[in-house]
Fold these 2 entries.
Entry 1:
Amino acid sequence: MLATFMYGAGDVRVETVPDPIIKNPTDAIVRTVRSCICGSDLHPYHSMHATHQGNPMGHELIAVVEEVGAEVASVKPGDFVVAPFAFQDNTCVFCREGLQTSCIHGGWYGSAETGGLQASLARIPLADGSLVKVPDVDGDSLDEGLLASLLTLSDVYLTGYHAARVGRVKPGKTVTVIGDGAVGLSAVLASRQLGAERIILMGRHAVRTDLGVEFGATDVVAERGAEGVARVMDLTSGEGSHIVLEAVGHMPAYEQAYGIVRPGGIISRVGVPQYEEAPIGFGSLFGKNARLAGGPAPVRAYLDAAIPQVLSGEIDPGRVFDRTITLQEVPAGYAAMGAREALKVMVTA
């Protein structure tokens, strides 16, 4: 089969490797229908030190089940499934509390043991907890729009939804979304779904912010830094935003977030932080009685409700994909996203 590996910054290769096999009775083997490149994949793409052994890439997938282990009960060969970006048993204490990304027995794709999901086939550990069947659907016959939207449920849309949910977005609230990438745009769509009264999108790329407006943004702020903070404060009559959804992960975005959050407000971060320390003192969070929330989205907690929303057409988050490539073309897809020539790239089998 073909699989994607990263050997260092800018060095992405698609290689022929052995097909995965069932290793544990709780495993499943799936055939890829669609995968994609994530914005978080760009962090190592820009900064990874060169290695002799490539790192398997990819964590977003919709697929058809090919084979299951003896103990798998919830899916069977032929089922069309969504695979959340982390694997989990969905039965441990943290899974039962809706924090599947903290599963005691779970983990992440992209290691030598698990492999990556930018591949022709994949081994899915803990398949009963890690795969969600799309009911009454033949994945090989769906149109591209539905495939794209279902694929966003493996990560990007439900990460944006997680930001809005833990940020406590609700009717009557002003929300500011920092970042016009796919997660930021998904956070706009989710905030509209949750009833936000006003949604300010901070982004500089017109094609992306135009989509953000279609998703529900009421205002767009192109300025950054102190100018961006001043602009949002002006839009909110000097009061700031009830909720700030930070979808970038870099320190300047966090600094903007605490600059614009309203006293008593919430900053919800889902951009993977590229820093270890962040201000929380009087001039940032403490003085405003502001709260900090967010983290890796427990996609599995939201999937059962989100799949019918996509199938019914209530939401169409797949519009964040603006380029489709084959698996062999994945290195070019990374280059396009890294150069901001593509918003989010979908990969066919």
Entry 2:
Amino acid sequence: MPTAWPAPRHLAVGRGHRMAWREAGRPDGEPWLLLHGGPGSGSQPGQLAPLDLRRQRAIAPDQRGSGASRPRGGLQGNHTPALVADLEALRVHLGLERWAVLAGSWGTVLALAYAQQHPQRVQRLVLRGAFALSRREIGGLLLPTRQTLQRLGVDPGWPAQQGKPLPVALRRLIQLLQSGTPGVAALRVARRWALLESDLAERGLRRGARHAALQGRPGLAVATRREWAALRRRFRRAQALARQPRRSRVDRQAHAKYRVQAHYLRHRGFLRPGDLDRAVQALARQGTPVDWVHGRFDAVCPPANSRRWAALGGRLSLPLSGHLGHEPDLLAALRERVLGAPA
């Protein structure tokens, strides 16, 4: 079975957008649609980890403006209804009747929107670290305390500060990131945004390692500490990069990612209040199996999101982990849900 991360193919989806997508696994296996987070980040090889590619087929698209999709960072015609239409166009292109959906973080929003629009095309869902697009979540990422900024080595020039209204902060971020070619200010914003994301991810890993040790799970504690150490090394490299005056390929990718992300956050995912609740309730009425898997110490998306929605319908797992899908206990829970019987 092909298991290496394949080169992307492209599908024209309108308004000048060409959606990239990749396939791996058994060509005639159970099809799984993999939806990345972000928005704006793109699919990653680690998304394949929960699947058994000897008997399952993975289909991993990059959403508009993200990853290998073109134009990268493009905002025109880029909104959630368009992303839903793109997924349906890909399903038709592949000749699939139905597929299961594995999504994480922002990808859970897109998964719920797609399932509500095309319920007959979704076999089941496994949703990791569900994102509710709440003011608390967005503000927790974009409005760090002054102490956090100082601890990260980020200067006070970050345009989103505690005490500033969130819509004002988002408008300022979009103004700085709107250019297709990053200037000095946009470069600084993208680098700092990446550091803030890494800091939140590290918090969850650190707490997961500590609680695994407290609960008498030494193997899990060691594995989680190893992931934490790897994240710390990447974080230190990012801090060093943030001090470099010259742009790199990583900078260009980050600029495109955060352009898209700011665009979606400012518009609250292009959803109306209550849309996600209505989508979860519709899935419960239809009897569509949903597994909610959420790291107990997730500092990006609060576990209360999945707890609340699982109470409306589905099965809940709360592993000793943070937000990242490759954390040991979270990955084990995802594998159990993807490879086992549906909820």
